[in-house]
Amino acid sequence: MSQPSQSATSSEDVTAIIAASAHAQLLLGPDLRIATASDGYCGALGLARSALVGRTLDEVFAPGPGLDILKSSLETARKTRLPHRNDSPGRLLAQSATGSVAGLSLAEAVSSPVLASDGEVRWLLHGAALPGEVGRTHLAQALEAAEARLRSVLQTVPDAMIIIDERGRIESLSTTAERLFGFSTGEVVGRNISMLMPSPYREQHDVYIERYLSTRERRIIGIGRIVVGQRKDGTTFPMHLTVGELQAGERHHFTGFIRDLTDQQMTESRLKELQSEVTHMSRYTALGEMASTLAHEINQPLTAISNYLKGSQRLIDRLDGEPVPQLRDAVGKAAEQALRAGQIIRRLREFVSRGESERRIESLPKLIEDASTLALVGIKEAGIEVRFRLDSRADQVLADRIQIQQVLVNLIRNSIEVMADSEPPRTLEIATAAGPDDMVEVSVADTGGGLAPEIAQNLFQPFMTTKRKGMGLGLSICRTIVEAHGGKIWVDTPASGGTVFRFTLRGLGRQEAGHGR
Question: pLDDT tens, 463-497?
């Protein structure tokens, strides 16, 4: 979220540096619209900066050879991406607000492209000679100004920035790059850039440069990729590298823009870990729910089998003959095993129905944040607006973190799936509210098509589903978890449309919260 502001700040820095220059310098966009003008340029023309900024060259300068020369020079610099020096005599004329005509000599004027990190032209810089600035003096001053601008950029650019030559030797290092790699500029200037890379990148880098200079085939320039950097202390870190190219005459220079991805990868790793925990618990709970349901169903035929076997024993007792004792013994053992099987299944049901879990004092807003992170992946493509309405009084609950996250993920994903086939507007609202008796209510509301009354009545029963490919265990599992936490879960269908799922959890009263601290 912070990248656009960084880019905007960088643009403001560039225009501010140019505007403060005493030399005659004009900064333009690739469309030749004026971005800013230096104090020296404005003074030479007798115009305020506001009369130049945002206007085209045709709107500022008088038609004539001078304007044609300036346009040609700027177009050449834009197309070739190389500085262009004007050797043609000419004068650029502009009319001030008072009606007076002023101008600048275009002799020795230079138009230079300023490239972005992707290698495209970001700005065009036009420099002209003021009266008294001629020959080598003007060129030397222009070089000093350019170096000052580069130093300012290196000190303020938000991403780490490194400039190397065609042999891979470091020429400049930004302040951010010094902090990132742990080296000062003096320690690395003149040394090969491979010192900032671990193996095998270190051994391959110079080969990449040589191949590019001989084939001109771009494999990373202007594209960007994820690589690994190495700090001064030997530790490595993931980074995103974008390389731009600058050619001055026959010499090549390469600028690398580096962004540290350590925090991003740690966040992604934590997200995967959290998703794995919820998925594992979801499978475990689904297995328990299915086992409980099957235990209930299987226990009935086992009871019938046991009863039939007992009846058979009574019939056998009325018979005579040699095989009767063996038959009586076999039927008796069968009845015993049927009873044993029933006892095993009954214990399994009791174990599952207890819903044993590790409940702790948890932050309800944090639980909702983590669950939303998992459930709302791809939400932008679905065109769904998400709203959070959290009651500050409903802050802490007594809950098993993974299980409650599982309930929230299930409810949120159900709402997203329902709204995928509905007409806009599509809105998902997650809310909390403090209730009586230290209970906290959590609701997940959507603007989907709603539920029919006959479906809503049995929605939390096992194997009840409105999905074509659903198993019908998701909401049943949610009910089991919530009831095991001492709460209840239900569904409302507002008259305005949509569906609202609500469930309650045990909250912490003020006295309990005080003891918790």
Answer: 545 555 444 456 877 888 888 888 999 988 888 88
Instruction: Give the CA radius of gyration of the chain.
Output: 38
Nearest to 453 by CA among 484, 407, 489, 491: 491
22-31, 76-85, 217-226, 501-510: range with lowest mean pLDDT: 217-226
Q: What is the helix (H) or strand (E) element at residue 336, kind and residue range? A: helix 324-354
Predicted confidence at residue 33, as pLDDT, reads 92
Q: How far is CA 449 from each of CA 34, 430, 445, 458, 468, rounded to the nearest angstrom?
A: 54, 18, 12, 18, 16
Contact yes or no for 403/480 (Cβ under 8 A): no
Dihedral sign of CA atoms 287, 293, 296, 302 in order:
negative
CA distances from 287 to 349, 474, 483 (A): 12, 11, 17
E strands present in 82-185: 84-85, 91-95, 101-115, 121-129, 160-165, 170-173
Residue 65: name the closest of 84, 45, 90 by CA.
Answer: 90
Measured between alpha carbons, how far is 411 from 146 in angstroms, rounded to an integer? Answer: 59
The owner of tokens 């309930």 is 407
Q: Are 503 and 442 in contact (CB under 8 A)?
A: yes
Beta strand 170-173 with 489-492: parallel, antiparallel or unpaired? Answer: unpaired
Residue 101 in tokens: 């005509």
Closest CA to 475 of 406, 394, 400: 406
Contact 478/413 with Cβ under 8 angstroms?
Answer: no
Between the CA of residue 192 and those of 162, 199, 215, 243, what are the distances in Å? 12, 14, 22, 16
Contact 513, 396 (CB under 8 A): yes
Q: Is 102 helix (H, G, I), strand (E, B) or coil?
A: strand
Measuring CA to CA, which residue among 175, 85, 159, 145 is closest to residue 116?
Answer: 159
Q: What is the DSSP annotation of 3-57?
A: HHHHHHHHHHHHHHHHHT-SSEEEEE-TTSBEEEE-HHHHHHHT--GGGTTT-BH
How many residues appear in the chain?
A: 517
Q: What is the pLDDT of residues 294-329, one digit of tens each?
A: 665 666 677 777 777 777 777 777 777 677 777 777
Instruction: Note the Cα 112 to chain centre separation in Å.
Output: 36
- Sheet containing strand 225-230, edge to edge, reads 170-173, 160-165, 251-260, 236-248, 225-230
Alpha carbons 233 and 236: distance in angstroms, whole number: 9
* Residues 291, 348: Cα–Cα separation, whole Å: 8
